[in-house]
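Figure 6 in text form: structure in, sequence out.
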């Protein structure tokens, strides 16, 4: 072809980027540390949770903060979710940028810069946000009115967690009365998260305690309804309580997150879901006969819920000390220098937030690379 030399003939057109060279390779050949997702295991988790709610009145609004990956969120929507939950405005922006139309920020959005972003977002999608103080409501109302849009407000009820939220029904009623009729805002219902109980290991105790806690939100709902304020929704619950609080009469939306990827801590709580997330690491040093050092530390593995585990080596215990870039194992088997291992993080959500992509595999072979678009979106 005239004017085309050998190098331009092999160049990829910009709208068809070259496929990732890792696709088709065995995961053990990948560079480390790499965040891995077992697609079949994650798919089974998504299907199990979706099928649980398919014929129930309450519906899934999965929490994006677990994986922050748009591809996974789209798969959750395809499995039947009614929308997504976010912890941060920046996460919601990522979702709306990728076409999501119904997003709840289950957190307080405060300060003029953020409220302006919130209003801009509400012009592009159906956005709801948690509130627990009249000052937030007034600021959002003013900005939304000026922006000619409407923001849905869910009043957060503190049902025992002691984080954000209003602890008494009367105060919730008072704030709801003020919201109803204010311009630029719409009363969307109640936000209630039983986060202080999701880690109760005994499932029966978790069930009864979390149902009692969520019952406080339902009582508040009934008070508002008796007072003539319709409550469109109670949104809350988690991957560890979906089958207890999630089926309570009066609860509408389940904000479960971790079930999509799972982690070491959640596997103790809800073993019906599979651990799909791991970090491929390598042995980089054998300083003594029993000692091995792996090439990831707290900068690559969220450790708030304890140390990571090592897949296929359940008896090897990592001591609590995790350095920035190293894990030291004191009773190491006969691992070789360079040997790949799969670390199972104790906390998937903070782990995913540390990576820009997850490498997806099936039966140990890379099939895809999914960006983690919401990674690092802290504001
Ligand atoms: C507001 C809120 N809703 C729901 C969840 C539940 O998510 P998960 O299923 O990952 O525990 C959380 C977890 O932190 C949360 O903060």
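Output sequence:
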């Amino acid at each position: 072809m005239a004017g085309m030399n050998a190098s331009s003939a092999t160049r990829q057109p910009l709208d068809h980027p070259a496929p990732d060279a890792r696709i088709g390779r065995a995961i053990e050949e990948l560079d480390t540390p790499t965040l891995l997702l077992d697609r079949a295991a994650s798919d089974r988790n998504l299907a199990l949770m979706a099928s649980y709610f398919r014929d129930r009145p309450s519906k899934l609004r999965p929490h994006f903060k677990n994986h922050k990956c748009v591809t996974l969120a789209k798969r959750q929507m395809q499995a039947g979710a009614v929308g997504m939950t976010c912890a941060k405005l920046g996460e919601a922006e990522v979702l709306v940028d990728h076409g999501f139309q119904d997003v709840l920020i289950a957190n307080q959005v405060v300060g003029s810069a953020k409220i302006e972003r919130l209003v801009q977002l509400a012009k592009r999608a159906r956005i709801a946000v948690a509130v627990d103080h009249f000052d937030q409501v007034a600021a959002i109302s003013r900005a939304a009115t000026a922006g000619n849009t409407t923001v849905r407000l869910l009043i957060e009820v503190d049902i025992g967690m002691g984080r954000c939220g209003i602890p008494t029904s009367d105060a919730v009623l008072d704030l709801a009365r003020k919201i109803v009729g204010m311009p630029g805002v719409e009363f969307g219902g109640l936000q209630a998260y039983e986060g202080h109980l999701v880690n109760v290991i005994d499932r029966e105790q978790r069930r009864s305690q979390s149902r009692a806690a969520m019952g406080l939100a339902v009582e508040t709902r009934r008070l508002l309804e008796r007072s003539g304020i319709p409550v469109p929704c109670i949104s809350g619950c988690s991957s560890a309580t979906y089958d207890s609080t999630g089926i309570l009469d009066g609860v509408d939306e389940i904000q479960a997150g971790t079930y999509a990827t799972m982690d070491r801590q959640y596997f103790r709580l809800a073993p019906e879901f599979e651990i799909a997330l791991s970090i491929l690491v390598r042995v980089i040093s054998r300083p003594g006969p029993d000692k091995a050092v792996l090439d990831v530390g707290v900068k690559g593995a969220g450790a708030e819920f304890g140390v990571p585990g090592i897949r296929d080596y359940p008896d090897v215990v990592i001591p609590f000390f995790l350095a920035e870039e190293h894990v030291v194992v004191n009773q190491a088997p006969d691992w070789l220098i360079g040997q790949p291992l799969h670390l199972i993080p104790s906390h998937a959500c903070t782990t995913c937030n540390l990576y820009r992509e997850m490498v997806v595999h099936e039966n140990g072979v890379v099939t895809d690379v999914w960006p983690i678009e919401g990674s690092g979106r802290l504001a």
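Caption detail: The CA atoms of residues 38 and 362 lie 6 Å apart.
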